[in-house]
Write a structure and sequence with these properties.
The complex is a heterodimer of chains A (341) and B (274). Chain A has 341 residues and is α/β, with parallel strands linked by helices. Chain A is built from 14 helices and ten strands. Chain A folds into two domains: 224 residues, Rossmann fold, CATH 3.40.50; 105 residues, no CATH class. Chain A starts with a strand and ends with a helix. Chain B has 274 residues and is mainly alpha-helical. The chains are: A alpha/beta (341), B mainly alpha (274).
Chain lengths: 341, 274
């Protein structure tokens, strides 16, 4: 179920004053089952890129292989491709049209030629997944709030049970809880069904939390295509591209600079908390006179310590000596980083 | 795709036509359109063609782009041509198919009509290609100003026109987006009989209407929030003023009209049946 792009170019309105080279020589491979984050500044070509994945726009030049088949070959079954690659557009709530939410969610499955009962079953399942309350199922989609509409629209794509789910900024304009709900559901689906997920987002935090791999777009080109930790290591370059690494990256770099031997590769808040605990732990064992102050601050920092994800592979031992010298400064540091949070 | 519709749209370029006063362009376009119906001979068509080519060159709008604008009206053009071709019964019969016949007069009429229509569309789209909706509104408002005396709400009419023009690309873009979104959900707009196809439009039309109303509402609110309350007592930031080039343009269009009428009527040029 892989998607592979070879030297893909896309030009909007070629040969006019509005000509826009939106994608430049993109080469990518997205293996089945991966959770990929796509990030880039406004206008960098993210939406353009993902619309290629289900053949909605045809590349001006280059090839796109889905499961090894070039989708631009004449006679390629586009309908099937669109059944397998589900695309949730930016502001998907603008596509709702049916008289009630239920029928709107059924639109996709119905187009797949499923029986009404099966459509209904899938719609119910999808609506439950996105966490829309049952009382809204028979309401007109236009009566819902923005966030509820968004959920209904996402359900409309999920109901088609795609093998690849592409989401274009699904959380733009949602409150923090709504954002976490939706992304958690997507992550859950990804784990449960092994579905490939491609998530476009402006939030480094979100991407860092969920994605196995990050594709950074910059002016229509792929700038980075790597694991989150490697991408965020380039945080200065990211800033130049109008982006930023997650806050924890900055905190970890700061801590490291001030002599605390943390692994700067961690990318999420809970990993960072674990890592700081670990680093401070080392420190305590080496400096018996360490006050409890630093520990307390580090505690405040850690939200969920149960997540024993990547604890970082390369522990910088060499810095251990520096820690002793810097130990006076580290309580201030911890306060500092709390403020940053 | 649907975005290819270019009628009524502005095309940014740096040309003398773009810089002309919108009033000049409005008046000239009107004169040009009328002039197309003031002659009957091929000599007139030659003059009109030369003039049009000159204007196209001056406008710096790519020819391909202009031709693309003709696409949506091809159907209309075909119908006109077919009617003219078969329904005119005068003159010598050229071809006879079943119960229909094409006469010399029919052929002549069909060709002339097609040319006129095409020139008409190109002429008027050249105006919108080279004039921003804002300028166009200002121009229309200034030209229609005398009507204010008989209580025609000129400013409001002009504002409505410019908003309508401005909304064309926005709604096209919206249509494009919605179409794609529904296609992503498996909608099929291309196959099926007429009824099925009409039904397939519902998932596009409903969201489109909803969004059009939402946008109209938003725009109205945004205008009110900035204290817009119609034309009364409203002054312009850039009042229209004729410059040398505008006067020159008036002279040119007058010369053209005179020439096309004189040549089209009195120069006896005849090629075959035309
Ligand atoms: N339909 C279109 N016609 C012409 N140009 C377009 C069109 N859609 C996008 N573009 C241009 O292509 C470039 C890439 O647009 P795209 O929508 O892919 O950006 P994006 O990365 O999704 O941005 P955002 O984060 O704002 O959604 C932009 O410069 C944009 O102006
Ligand atoms: Mg986008």
């Amino acid at each position: 179920m892989s998607i592979r792009l070879e030297h893909l170019n896309y030009i909007y309105s070629p040969n006019t004053a509005y000509e826009k080279h939106a994608l430049k020589d993109i080469c990518l491979e997205i293996p089945a089952g991966e959770f990929v984050g796509v990030i880039g500044h406004t206008g960098s070509g993210k939406s353009t890129l993902i619309q290629h994945f289900n053949g909605l726009i045809k590349a001006t030049d280059g090839k796109l292989f889905y499961n090894g088949e070039n989708i631009y070959e004449p006679g390629y079954n586009m309908k099937n491709l669109r059944n397998e690659v589900g695309l949730v557009f930016q502001y998907p709530e603008h596509q709702l049209f049916e008289i009630d939410v239920m029928s709107d969610v059924c639109f996709g499955p119905k187009n797949q030629g499923l029986s009404p009962e099966e459509c209904e079953k899938r719609a119910l399942e999808a609506l439950r997944l996105v966490g829309l309350k049952e009382k809204y199922y028979k309401a007109s989609p236009f009566e819902l709030s923005g966030g509820q509409k968004r959920r209904a629209a996402i359900a409309g794509v999920l109901a088609m049970r795609p093998k690849v789910l592409v989401l274009d900024e699904p959380t733009a304009g949602l409150d923090p809880k709504g954002r976490d709900d939706i992304l958690d559901q997507v992550a859950y689906l990804h784990k449960q069904t092994g579905m490939t997920v491609i998530l476009v987002s402006h939030s480094m935090e979100d991407i860092a939390r969920y994605a196995d791999r990050i594709i950074v777009m910059n002016h229509g080109e792929v700038m980075y295509n790597d694991r989150p930790k490697n991408v965020f290591a380039h945080y200065r370059e990211l800033e130049k591209a109008g982006l930023a690494a997650p806050q924890v990256t900055y905190i970890m770099h700061d801590l490291k600079e001030r002599g605390i031997p943390v692994d700067i590769g961690v990318t999420t808040v809970s990993e960072a908390a674990d890592e700081i605990m670990r680093a401070l732990g080392t420190e305590i064992s080496e400096n018996e006179d360490m006050t409890g102050d630093g520990m307390l601050d580090a505690d405040a920092m850690g939200g969920d310590t149960s997540d024993a994800g990547a604890t970082g592979d390369g522990t910088p031992d060499a810095d251990a000596a520096a820690v002793g010298r810097a130990s006076g400064a580290d309580t201030a540091d911890s306060k500092n980083m709390e403020k940053k949070r | 795709m649907i975005r290819d519709i270019t009628i009524g749209q502005y095309y940014p370029a740096k040309s003398i036509l773009h810089r002309l006063d919108p009033r000049v362009k409005l008046v000239s376009t009107l004169l040009y359109l009328v002039s197309l119906f003031l002659f009957r001979s091929i000599a007139g068509y030659l003059v009109a063609t030369l003039f049009l080519i000159g204007i196209i060159r001056l406008s710096r709008v790519p020819f391909g782009y202009i031709v693309k604008g003709l696409k949506p009206v091809i159907m209309l053009l075909m119908i006109t041509v077919v009617f003219n071709l078969f329904l005119k019964k005068e003159g010598e019969v050229l071809v006879h198919i079943w119960r229909l016949s094409i006469t010399t007069a029919g052929l002549r009429n069909a060709v002339y009509m097609a040319i006129r229509l095409i020139y008409l569309i190109i002429g008027s789209s050249l105006m919108t290609f080279t004039t921003t909706p804002n300028e166009l509104t200002d121009g229309i408002e200034a030209l229609l100003n005398p009507l204010n005396k008989i209580r025609v709400p000129v400013h409001e009419v002009a504002m409505m026109m410019s908003i309508a023009l401005r909304f064309i690309p926005i709604l096209l873009e919206e249509t494009d987006k919605i179409m794609k979104a529904q296609q992503a959900r498996g909608a099929d707009f291309e196959s099926g009989n007429i009824i099925q196809r009409a039904k397939a439009m519902i998932p596009i039309l409903v969201p489109l209407f909803v969004s059009a109303f939402r946008r109209a509402n938003d725009l109205a609110m945004a205008m009110e929030a900035r204290c817009y309350r119609g034309g009364e007592g409203r002054t312009k930031m850039k009042p229209l003023r004729y410059k040398g080039r505008d006067r020159a343009a008036y002279v040119m269009i007058a010369v053209y009209v005179a020439a096309v009428v004189a040549i089209g009527r009195y120069v006896p040029l005849k090629i075959w049946i035309f």
